[in-house]
Design goal:
The chain has 197 residues and is mainly β. The chain has 2 domains: 3-54, no CATH class; 73-196, 3-Layer(aba) Sandwich (Rossmann fold), CATH 3.40.50. The protein is built from 3 helices and 11 strands, in the order ββββαβαβββαβββ. The two termini are 30 Å apart.
Length: 197
């Protein structure tokens, strides 16, 4: 896990949003290889093992990413509409399959994969988290991409939109979200793009 990402994470338990406390045990450059994230509100402790944050166990996506279709890393980058380096983009579930392509298209932006398919490991431009819900603070990410199966779940979609900065975009595969604070910009081929008001 990229150490600076700590400032943008929250405990996924259902309580008021709060900061997390990081206790690193092993570092590799700016990456925390082993340690613990602690929540001062509920006192839960979340281990970091082999660079992966475990907010929960066994939450990796087991279905393969979608094959074919018009949506690829270039399309996802266009949907996000980001310019310039800095900040974070979340890739949820199957959307992590676009990480390799996006790392070249979104230079200087750190990618955060949540519940990615098996085989994804953290690296210089990618952090990996396993979580039962969106573990990002409100208004802290430059963009979120929700892949299956999470794009079809209302709680994940709302959490994703709440996590982006006002005026920036969330992208998802699944039913179009319907809640206050979300403005739909377009939808096609089972994907939607919208921004946080």
């Amino acid at each position: 896990m990229f150490i600076e990402l700590t400032d943008h994470l929250r405990c996924p338990a259902e309580h008021a949003e709060s900061f997390l406390v990081l206790i690193p045990d092993e570092m590799g450059g700016r990456e925390v290889r082993r340690g613990v994230l602690g929540c001062p509100v509920c006192q839960r402790e979340y281990p970091i093992r082999d660079g992966v944050v475990h907010f929960s166990e066994g939450t990796r996506v087991v279905t393969p990413p979608p094959a074919g279709g018009a949506v690829n890393a270039g399309a996802i980058a266009a949907f996000l509409g980001l310019e310039g380096p800095g900040g974070y983009v979340g890739l949820i579930g199957e959307a992590a399959s676009y990480a390799a392509g996006l790392s070249g298209l979104l230079a200087g932006i750190h990618l955060v994969a949540v519940n990615p398919p098996g085989g994804f490991s953290p690296g210089e431009t990618l952090s990996v988290l396993l979580s039962p819900g969106i573990p990002f603070k409100r208004g802290s990410f430059r963009g979120i991409v929700l892949g299956g199966p999470f794009g079809g779940e209302a709680a994940w979609a709302e959490g994703a939109v709440q996590s982006v900065l006002p005026g920036l975009r969330a992208v998802g595969r699944g039913p179009t979200p319907q809640f206050d604070g979300f403005e739909l910009m377009g939808e096609a081929e089972g994907w939607w793009v919208g921004k946080k008001r």
